């Protein structure tokens, strides 16, 4: 392999890792981390550990098969059971559209905290920046660079705030393995994080980027695995640092309610806050002052922009199955995807019904997608005669399928509520 090809491969590998990681760390994750850390305290470390293990099992299983065969998730599903891939593609695209509405909304919240820009203008700015990237002729290479640098920026900013808030690291480590709140109390948070970190389009974002970048085939399997591991490490670092930064705040100000600033009027040292509800940014404000609040806005904006890019890119990569015209005009479809989700956010605000639908779909998608991949590992027509899937990955994969199927069943009532 020439030096140029090796360098290009490394750029794609890093880009895929950061695309997956930053897709998983969207504005919803930041809010969930602040909210659950506020309610569970140091025990949220256990939630992060369990969700990371589940995410790792799903990611490695899926990335290995997709990158070995060079086939996207919907194509593998179609070869396992014809028609299943079309169902999967439709579910992921619909779920991705709904979540992208939330991602655009997060961009507005981030810009409000960072610069005081009104939320609706922030929605438009977030969408336009994402669209500009896909207007470029070298959009995929630009994505690799954008998600890499914005991801690194998030890590640096959160690390700085963590040092300022001085969390009880020893207590956090102890609770990560033996939660003081008890395991039953952590289950709702675990289910929520799993749905938001390995559900829907997120699981496939990096693998599809590797396929588009030509990192496929038996000889590239080690590179694909390395990329998936890097992505999981990046996501883990951001999650842990954010958790510790917020834990420092709730430890210093016992009883603080990050979701409702008005409830904290009697707590000494807690500044008054009359802005838009934003638990993560509010935690930074309380723990480290106004500058940290601005930093939080920057983190939320970066998380939102990279998630908009990841959701749009991956959702359209699934729609390619429906028509060659979509593949030929991929960037324009991605731009349209971003524009529609942004327009809905501007007109309807939170678009609550779509977000509820997305949450329900997310719970249903992973058992189908991961289950089809696991079935494919023993189908020689899909993976060929020589492929051997590790037994431990198969066993652990089916355990994740069972757990996420339970998550999907719990989410089904939300679908019925949409039509009342």
Task: Supply the key terms.
420 residues, globular, mainly alpha, Amino acid/polyamine transporter I
Query: Quick check: average pLDDT?
Result: 83
- Report strand %: under 5%
**First CA to last CA: what distance?**
60 Å
Number of domains: 1
Unreliable segments (pLDDT under 50, ≥5 consecutive)? none
Cα-based radius of gyration, to the nearest Å: 21 Å
Please count the helical segments. Answer: 17
Shape: globular
Named CATH architecture:
Up-down Bundle
Give the proportion of residues in helices. over 70%
Instruction: Give me the CATH superfamily.
Output: Amino acid/polyamine transporter I
- What is the H-and-E element order? HHHHHHHHHHHHHHHHH
Secondary structure class reads mainly alpha
CATH topology: Amino acid/polyamine transporter I
Largest sheet: none
Q: Which CATH top level class fits?
A: Mainly Alpha
Number of strands: 0
Report what the structure shows.
- This protein has 17 helices and no strands.
- It is mainly α and 420 residues long.
Task: Please give a quick description of this structure.
The chain contains 17 helices and no strands. By secondary structure, the protein is mainly alpha-helical. It has one domain: Amino acid/polyamine transporter I.
Topology:
Layout: H1 3-24, H2 27-40, H3 44-69, H4 73-80, H5 84-115, H6 119-135, H7 139-165, H8 169-177, H9 183-198, H10 202-212, H11 221-252, H12 279-319, H13 324-328, H14 330-348, H15 352-376, H16 380-383, H17 391-417
């Amino acid at each position: 392999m020439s030096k140029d090809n090796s360098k290009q491969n490394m750029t794609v590998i890093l880009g895929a890792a950061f695309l997956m990681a930053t897709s998983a760390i969207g504005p919803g994750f930041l809010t969930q981390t602040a909210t659950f850390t506020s309610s569970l305290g140091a025990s949220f470390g256990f939630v992060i550990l369990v969700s990371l293990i589940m995410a790792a099992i799903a990611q490695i299983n899926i990335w290995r098969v997709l990158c070995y065969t060079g086939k996207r998730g919907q194509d593998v599903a179609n070869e396992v059971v014809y028609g299943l891939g079309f169902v999967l593609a439709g579910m992921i695209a619909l779920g991705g559209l709904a979540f992208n509405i939330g991602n655009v909304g997060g961009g507005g919240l981030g810009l409000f905290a960072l610069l005081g820009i009104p939320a609706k203008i922030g929605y438009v700015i977030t969408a336009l920046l994402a669209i500009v990237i896909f207007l470029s002729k070298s959009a995929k290479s630009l994505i690799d660079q954008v998600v890499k640098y914005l991801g690194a920026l998030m890590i640096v900013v959160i690390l700085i705030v963590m040092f300022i808030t001085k969390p009880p690291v020893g207590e956090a480590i102890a609770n990560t393995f033996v939660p003081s709140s008890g395991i039953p109390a952590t289950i709702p948070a675990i289910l929520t994080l799993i749905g938001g970190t390995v559900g829907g389009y997120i699981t496939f974002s990096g693998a599809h980027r590797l396929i588009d970048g030509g990192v496929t085939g038996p000889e590239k399997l080690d590179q694909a695995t390395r990329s998936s591991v890097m992505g999981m490490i990046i996501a883990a670092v951001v999650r842990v640092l954010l958790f510790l930064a917020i834990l420092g705040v709730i430890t210093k100000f016992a009883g603080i309610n990050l979701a409702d600033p008005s409830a904290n009027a009697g707590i000494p040292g807690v500044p008054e806050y009359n802005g838009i509800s934003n638990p993560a940014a509010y935690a930074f404000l309380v723990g480290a002052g106004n500058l940290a609040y601005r930093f939080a806005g920057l983190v939320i904006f970066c998380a939102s922009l990279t998630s908009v890019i990841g959701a749009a890119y991956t959702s359209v990569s699934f729609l390619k199955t429906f028509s060659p015209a979509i593949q030929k005009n991929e960037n324009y479809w991605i731009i349209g995807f971003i524009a529609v989700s942004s327009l809905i956010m501007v007109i309807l605000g939170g678009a609550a019904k779509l977000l509820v639908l997305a949450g329900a779909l997310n719970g249903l998608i992973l058992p189908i997608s991961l289950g089809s991949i696991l079935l494919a590992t023993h189908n020689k027509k899909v993976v060929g005669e020589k492929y051997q899937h590790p037994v431990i990955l198969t066993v652990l994969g089916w355990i994740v399928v069972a757990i996420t199927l339970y998550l999907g069943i719990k989410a089904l009532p939300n679908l019925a509520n949409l039509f009342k």
